[in-house]
Amino acid sequence: MIHSLLRSRLLLAWAALFVAASHALAADAASGRNQYIDYLAGDLPLVLSAPHGGREKPEEIPDRTEGKVDIDTNTQELIRAVGDEIYARTGHRAHLIICRLARKKLDCNREIVEAAAGNPVAGQAWGEYHGFIEQACAAAVARFGKAFLIDLHGQSHPDQRIELGYLHTVETLALPDAGLNAPAVAAASSLRLIAAHAPRPYVELLRGPRSLGALIEAQGFPATPSPGRPVPAVPYFSGGYTVRRHTGGSSPIAGLQIESNLKGIRDTAANREKFARALVTVFDTFLAEQWDVKLHAKPAAAR
Fold it and tell me: Sorting pLDDT into bands at 50, 70 and 90, what band is 250?
């Protein structure tokens, strides 16, 4: 017990040190130590992260023996395809943060103790990953006053559809409309900043006809929560450490976790490009309607 407590305190101290060091990196830094973490800086209030698509397995980091270690296949490639589509369509770039380490070496979507399993090299990469997200969000907030974070994952659940994680459990999403519209529910959401200024009830933001789920389904990809599937089937990923950490508290950041199924979305380059086009269309519409963010607008500094 004492050994475990000391280990946890040491890891947390390492985490604070590595996050502080990552903030000191030059603004144009493209990667962390040994290129384990990639950061492609953008000029939009849109930040995309991919923690589980890495394949690098350096010997200097031992394998994690606890927690999940499976790869979210091709999510690294998918997030780059989304970034390319945004640039092709708008002439501007989203911020991209990508972990290139295999999940068996580091899980960036967990707190430091589980994520790095006590290894200082993995701990440094974890700090760089979240430091780059903070750096990207800070740059977006400085220009636009807000940032939107999309944490991109892959899943293989029996119900093959896009899962949108707003930090609500299935039990919460199963509440009647009146329950979902309770102020405490929206306040616990990763969309709380958007909900605070939305002209419609919160349930409309979650599963109404102009919700993300509805817009994704209009592009031909089943999704949940949505008008067609308001309550996700179990298992369902509601959003993890990254979304909780970076959209919580007094942060001027909204966002969500997106879990994509493999077939028809991540499995081939053509399907990744097709889904990237659909996703950019969806967020172009949703952010303009719900948060007054226009992806085609020139950044404030360029006006």
Answer: confident
The end-to-end CA distance of the chain, in Å, is 58
* Calpha distance 254→172 (Å, rounded): 19
Strands 253-261 and 37-40: unpaired
Find where tokens 């996050």 sit.
Answer: 19
Q: What is the model's pLDDT at position 30?
A: 65
Q: What ranges in 176-268 are assigned the alpha helix state H?
A: 177-180, 183-187, 192-197, 202-207, 212-218, 241-247
Is residue 264 scored above 90 in pLDDT?
A: yes
Reduced 3-state DSSP string for 33-97: HHHCEEEECCCCCEEEEECCCCCECCCCCCCCCCCCCCCCCCHHHHHHHHHHHHHHHHCCCCEEE
Do the bridges between strand 46-50 and strand 95-99 make them parallel or antiparallel, or are there none, so unpaired? parallel
d(CA 255, CA 193): 9
The pLDDT tens digits for 84-128 are 999 999 999 999 999 999 999 999 999 999 999 999 999 999 999
pLDDT digits (tens, 9 = 90+) for 207-228: 999 999 999 999 999 999 999 9
Beta-carbon contacts of 243 under 8 Å, excluding residues fewer than 6 positions away, are: 149, 151, 165, 167, 190, 255, 256, 257
Query: Phi/psi at 249 (nearest 5 deg)?
Result: 60, -135
The answer to whether the CB of 75 falls within 8 A of the CB of 52 is yes
Total-model pTM: 0.89
Could you count the other beta carbons within 10 Å of the beta carbon of residue 17?
Answer: 14
Cβ 129 vs Cβ 32: under 8 Å: yes
Q: Is 138 helix (H, G, I), strand (E, B) or coil?
A: helix
The answer on pLDDT for 57 being more than 90 is: yes
For 210, phi and psi rounded to 5 degrees? -115, 20
Structure confidence at residue 298 (pLDDT)? 53
